[in-house]
Amino acid sequence: MIVATGDTRTPTDIALAAYERAGEPKKLIAHEGGHFGAYVAPFDETGGRATDWFIQHPKPAATS
């Protein structure tokens, strides 16, 4: 989960509480800035780490 420490759209405390309730596997990435900040200045880090997560934890195949 990518959380902005200065987010006013999804306040940081609410995002962190959701992270705490989430089941494993989980990983927290916190960055300074606002809600959309993860897509600007730190994007090399946040985008790369998000990509790594989805490669490491692929969605299970659907069963019928």
Descriptive terms for the model:
single chain, about 60 residues, alpha+beta, about 10% strand
Walk me through what this model shows:
The protein has 2 helices and 2 strands, in the order E-H-E-H. The protein is α+β, with helices and mostly antiparallel strands. Strands 1-2 form a two-stranded parallel ribbon. Helix 1 (12-21) links the parallel strand 1 and strand 2 (29-31). The N and C termini lie far apart (30 Å).
The major beta sheet can be summarized as: 2 strands, parallel
Q: End-to-end span in angstroms? A: 30 Å
The share of residues in extended strands comes to 5-15%
- Using the alpha-carbon principal axes, give the shape: globular
Unreliable stretches (pLDDT < 50, length at least 5) are: none
Number of H- or I-type helical stretches: 2
Gyration radius (Cα, Å) is: 13 Å
Would you list the SSEs in sequence order as H and E? EHEH
Which structural category do the helix and sheet elements fall into? alpha+beta
What is the secondary structure topology, with strand pairs?
Blueprint: E1 2-4, H1 12-21, E2 29-31, H2 43-56
Parallel strand pairs: 1-2
In brief:
By secondary structure, this protein is of the alpha+beta class.
